[in-house]
């Protein structure tokens, strides 16, 4: 590392290496990095670039980047060698991220729809229109007729002022965010099992684990930098990667073992693993006795397909014997029949978790979270780790990954969900009182009842209950499930739509006012990644035209609505002022955030930050100063300090392939594009490598249907259809009876086809399973 | 007597040790053996994806600690020398052992993992597709320098290399300027002593090459100011 630190440009680096090589007597004989002088030819001199640190704009891994600027423009990106997340490595999206901001269709000015046409409007006037409309809507239809839909890509200060404006100033819980579509099940899983959100471990676990079990998670494409860290351990120490999935992917080809299962049966396989652990005496009895409770909840919860669906779980304590009895239905032999996983493979997986001498990390992301039983699936993975006591130790633990750069930092920690407050939930009087105190508002103003989660929010727009909605840094009309319903809903006259974004998207197509937002490096901010790492960056370049920070646009609107005294921040310094105010919410050993001076210096700091030190492994008294029960472990999120092992059964998916719709549809991402592609498709390198979406077939299915590569295929469900070129034996390989479509392409909207069923506990939709038919067109 | 006792106790120790070892290995043997079940449905692999990782798994070569022999390294000119056009299978520039063989085992001996060949004073290039054993289906020897008739076939220019040619920004990772078919295993040609010096990678230990390097063969790469993906945004025409 030290060599990297002292060298600031690739050119100087190469020069030094070349010199070094000349100096070495046996010029040829030094290992590792060698640059032939030929490679140096024609390299532009970029030694004078000004490099500034920050986090990557894309996924939840949260790599540290260095952005090189020249004459006020960002011209280069490299991995930050000081960041312990990525140690100088990035993925192809990360390296090219800054290219998107110079796209020619960048939103540089506010646009207001007048007589069906968008008219360029000074930002001040546009903000007047937004504030007036919001105010008049509240006056006529009440507080709950206005809503805000934000993003896991909003910075911490942006999320904070959004929450303060909606919940503290206006007094409505109509605030939710797109992280509902990706992380809600993880949150519900953490809260039900541990009573405290976010992973207990950190990425350093990768350096210690003997086994990585990935649950429905194509990390080679979706979390490539972490996957590279795993591959490094594989070649250094012989660590093993086990890929448990419904589709053969790049990750499967790189793993030591690829195990495929029938969609939805992960619930049963996880229970079968627990069954084997107990049956073979692999359970860590003293750990379970000291640190775990057993509980069950309501079953047959439904799938939230109908409007105004409500569900509240009723947890009920059970004993170990009852749990053991429940598991009898999940012997490997029984589960093997419908999961299509062989008995041997189930036993193999169980033996990995069960072996007391092997350290295991489980990774998962959307495969487990975007699941109509997503909360249950999260609980079940924790069960395996709790039963064996493999948790909260270096190299041992369940690790829930995130998809957005600040899904943790903003959506989860600041709490831009309808039920959340920066600390705790709106239902809790103590939490409301704390928020009211810090916000300096009367506590009665914060409503105690959650309102709409993401899917229900757009249903309310459709029904006409919401008459004003403001979205920021998100593209719901590409990313929501069943967009076929929600696009016409947003187009209705009954709802006034404000969209803040950097680029035009299908969502801004339906806006009444479009506000031009500054991109990540055009503003200062803070993000929080999957391993509880908070990362600060300073503004690096000026935003074009009138493009402005989202946080500042909120503040301007708040002032115009008469809440100026609650938002006394300055334009130059608002990021710091807001962070320092927000920090008060989390004071203490359980969630203390690092002070700004530290964050400015370091390439990210993990919370809880206690006495100048990061807590890398929570709940383990060796590492976590918040543990105070005198035992080795303390799950202090729960009142009795014990984690919960949940009895969660296997239940069917809401829609299964049948005669009319014979295929499973799975959706997801590719390495080149990030989410709805509004940024990555504007990066030439990435667009040229992956210009459009496709529908993947298993070769046997393709043969049976007579489908050849590249042919146009219509994929339709009971909700809508989408035409895409067929892809056979290319990027991925779905199991027989399944098709896969990436969702980045706004010209091929696969979410017109998906189902808006969700997990009743977390309210997170399932994008991975619905029934479709396919036909050549 | 003492001597005898010594001998007896020596054998006793040996015997006990035998019992212990025997018991231990017996116990070990009792553990249920796990044999992975290989149930591969037809075509359960992805041709364009699998090659990247294969060499790391199947060879025990430590690419990151491989010395570079500057006196015997190939140049990119050498590389293209025995190819009819960029992307064509190279001809065999040396006499072959068995004229009648497919190649297979014979060729693979040197070309699977490479290594220095005294006779040719060079490192054997590594094939990116060692699983294809009918080598001489595509690779032929060169037994004459003459041509049957004069010809006008002009060899196409190979893809250009160097900073600013295949990469979009200063210092950003270069994209792949060639076809990948049968060349999915990047490090075969981009690492090790036989790699052409101009295209030898500085970080062969990174394994997942296509995390950063993508195939770009359709069009020349465009710089920052170029259009990538623009929306046909009629409604915004007053912008």
TrEMBL record, chain A:
EC number: 1.9.6.1
GO cellular component terms given for this protein: extracellular region; membrane; nitrate reductase complex
Keyword 4Fe-4S among record annotations: yes
Catalytic activity: 2 Fe(II)-[cytochrome] + nitrate + 2 H(+) = 2 Fe(III)-[cytochrome] + nitrite + H2O
GO molecular function list: 4 iron, 4 sulfur cluster binding; electron transfer activity; iron ion binding; molybdenum ion binding; molybdopterin cofactor binding; nitrate reductase (cytochrome) activity
GO terms for biological process, alphabetical: cellular respiration; Mo-molybdopterin cofactor biosynthetic process; nitrate assimilation
Superkingdom to which the source organism belongs: Bacteria
Cofactor note: Binds 1 [4Fe-4S] cluster. Binds 1 molybdenum-bis(molybdopterin guanine dinucleotide) (Mo-bis-MGD) cofactor per subunit.
Pfam family, one: Molydop_binding
PTM: Predicted to be exported by the Tat system. The position of the signal peptide cleavage has not been experimentally proven.
Name of the protein in question: Nitrate reductase
UniProtKB/TrEMBL annotation, chain B:
Domain of life: Bacteria
GO molecular function: electron transfer activity; heme binding; metal ion binding
Protein known as: Cytochrome c-type protein NapB
Any single biological process term in GO: anaerobic respiration
Matches recorded under Pfam families: Cytochrom_CIII, NapB
Keyword Ion transport: no
Protein source organism: Winogradskyella jejuensis
Alphabetized InterPro entries for the sequence: Cyt_c_III_dom, Multihaem_cyt_sf, NapB
Domain Class III cytochrome C: from-to ranges: 129-213
Transmembrane segments: 7-26
Keyword tags: Electron transport, Heme, Iron, Membrane, Metal-binding, Transmembrane, Transmembrane helix, Transport
């Amino acid at each position: 590392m030290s060599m990297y630190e002292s060298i600031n440009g690739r050119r100087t680096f190469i020069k030094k290496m070349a010199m070094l090589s000349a100096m070495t007597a046996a010029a040829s004989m030094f290992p590792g990095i060698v640059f032939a002088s030929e490679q140096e030819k024609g390299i532009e001199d970029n030694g004078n670039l000004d490099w500034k640190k920050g986090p990557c704009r894309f996924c939840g891994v949260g790599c540290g980047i260095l952005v090189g600027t020249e004459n006020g423009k960002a011209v280069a990106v490299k991995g930050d060698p000081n960041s312990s997340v990525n140690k100088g490595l990035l993925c192809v999206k990360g390296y090219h991220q800054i290219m998107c901001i110079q796209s020619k269709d960048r939103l540089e000015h506010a646009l207001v729809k007048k007589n069906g046409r968008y008219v360029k409007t000074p930002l001040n006037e546009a903000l007047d229109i937004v504030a007036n409309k919001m105010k008049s809507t509240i006056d006529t239809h009440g507080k709950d007729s206005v809503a805000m839909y934000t993003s896991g890509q909003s910075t911490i200060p942006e999320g904070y002022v959004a929450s303060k404006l909606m919940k503290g100033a206006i007094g409505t819980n109509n605030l939710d965010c797109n992280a509902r579509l990706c992380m809600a099940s993880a949150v519900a899983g953490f809260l039900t099992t541990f009573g405290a959100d976010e992973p207990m471990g950190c990425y350093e676990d990768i350096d210690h684990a003997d086994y990585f079990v990935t649950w429905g998670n194509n990390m080679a494409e979706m979390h490539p930098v972490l996957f590279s860290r795993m591959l490094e351990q594989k070649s250094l120490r012989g660590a093993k990667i086990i890929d448990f999935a419904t589709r053969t992917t790049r990750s499967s080809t790189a793993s030591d073992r690829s195990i495929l299962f029938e969609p939805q049966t992960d619930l049963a396989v996880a229970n079968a693993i627990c069954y084997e652990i107990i049956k073979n005496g692999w359970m860590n009895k003293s750990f379970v006795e000291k640190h775990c409770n057993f509980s069950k909840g309501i079953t047959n919860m439904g799938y939230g397909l109908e409007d105004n669906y409500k569900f509240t779980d009723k947890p009920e304590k059970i004993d170990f014997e009852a749990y053991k009895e429940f598991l009898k239905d999940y012997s490997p032999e029984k589960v093997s029949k419908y999961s299509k996983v062989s008995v041997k493979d189930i036993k193999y997986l169980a033996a990995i978790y069960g072996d007391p001498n092997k350290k295991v990390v489980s990774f998962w992301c959307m495969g487990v979270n975007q699941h109509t039983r997503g909360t249950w699936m999260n609980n079940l993975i924790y069960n395996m780790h709790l039963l064996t006591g493999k948790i909260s130790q270096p190299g041992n633990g369940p690790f829930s990954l995130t998809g957005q750069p600040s899904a943790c930092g903003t959506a989860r920690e600041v709490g831009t969900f309808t039920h959340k407050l920066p600390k705790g939930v709106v239902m809790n009087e103590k939490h409301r009182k704390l928020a009211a105190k810090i916000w300096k508002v009367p506590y009665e103003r914060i409503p105690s009842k959650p309102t709409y989660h993401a899917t229900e929010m757009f249903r309310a727009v459709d029904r006409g209950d919401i008459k004003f909605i403001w979205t920021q840094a998100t593209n719901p009309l590409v990313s929501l499930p069943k967009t076929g319903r929600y696009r016409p809903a947003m187009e209705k006259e009954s709802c006034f739509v404000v969209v803040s974004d950097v680029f035009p998207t299908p969502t801004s197509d339906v806006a009444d006012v479009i506000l031009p937002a500054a991109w990540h490096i055009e503003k200062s901010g803070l993000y929080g990644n999957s391993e509880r790492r908070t990362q600060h960056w300073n503004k690096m370049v000026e935003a074009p035209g009138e493009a402005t920070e989202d946080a500042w646009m909120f503040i301007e609107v708040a002032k115009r609505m008469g809440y100026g005294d609650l938002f006394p921040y300055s334009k130059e310094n608002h990021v710091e002022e807001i962070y320092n105010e927000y920090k008060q919410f989390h004071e203490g050993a359980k969630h203390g955030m690092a002070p700004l001076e530290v964050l400015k210096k370091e390439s990210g700091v993990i919370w809880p930050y206690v006495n100048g030190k990061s807590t890398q492994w929570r709940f383990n008294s060796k590492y976590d100063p918040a543990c105070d029960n005198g035992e080795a472990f303390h799950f202090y999120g729960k009142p009795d300090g014990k984690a919960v092992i949940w009895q969660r059964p296997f239940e069917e998916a809401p829609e299964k392939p049948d005669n009319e719709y014979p295929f499973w549809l799975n959706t997801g991402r590719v390495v080149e594009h990030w989410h709805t592609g509004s940024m990555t498709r504007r990066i030439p390198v990435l667009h040229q490598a992956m210009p459009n979406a496709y529908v993947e077939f298993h070769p046997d299915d393709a043969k049976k249907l007579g489908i050849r590569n590249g042919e146009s295929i219509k994929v339709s469900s009971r909700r809508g259809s989408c035409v895409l070129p067929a892809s056979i034996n290319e990027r991925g390989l779905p199991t027989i009876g399944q098709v896969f479509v990436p969702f980045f392409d706004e010209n091929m909207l696969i979410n017109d086809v998906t189902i808006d069923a969700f997990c009743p506990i977390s309210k997170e939709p399932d994008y991975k399973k619905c029934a479709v038919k396919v036909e050549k067109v | 007597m003492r001597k005898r006792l010594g001998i007896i106790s020596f054998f006793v120790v040996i015997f006990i040790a035998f019992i212990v070892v025997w018991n231990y290995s017996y116990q070990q043997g009792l553990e249920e053996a796990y044999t992975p079940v290989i149930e591969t449905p037809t075509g359960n692999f992805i041709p364009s994806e699998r090659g990247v990782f294969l060499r790391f798994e199947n060879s025990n070569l430590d690419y990151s600690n491989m010395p570079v022999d500057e006196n015997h390294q190939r140049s990119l000119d050498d590389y293209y020398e025995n190819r009819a056009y960029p992307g064509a299978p190279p001809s065999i520039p040396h006499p072959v052992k068995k004229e009648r063989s497919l190649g297979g085992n014979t060729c693979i001996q040197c070309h699977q993992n490479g290594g220095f060949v005294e006779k040719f004073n060079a490192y054997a290039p590594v094939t990116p597709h060692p699983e294809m054993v009918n080598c001489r289906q595509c690779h032929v020897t060169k037994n004459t320098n003459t041509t049957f008739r004069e010809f006008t076939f002009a060899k196409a220019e190979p893809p250009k290399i160097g900073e600013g040619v295949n990469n979009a920004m200063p210092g950003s990772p270069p994209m792949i300027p060639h076809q990948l078919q049968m060349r999915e295993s990047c490090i075969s040609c981009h690492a090790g002593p036989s790699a052409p010096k101009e295209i030898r990678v500085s970080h062969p230990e990174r394994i997942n090459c296509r995390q950063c390097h993508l195939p770009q063969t359709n069009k020349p790469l465009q710089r920052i100011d170029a259009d990538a993906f623009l929306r046909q945004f009629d409604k915004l025409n007053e912008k």
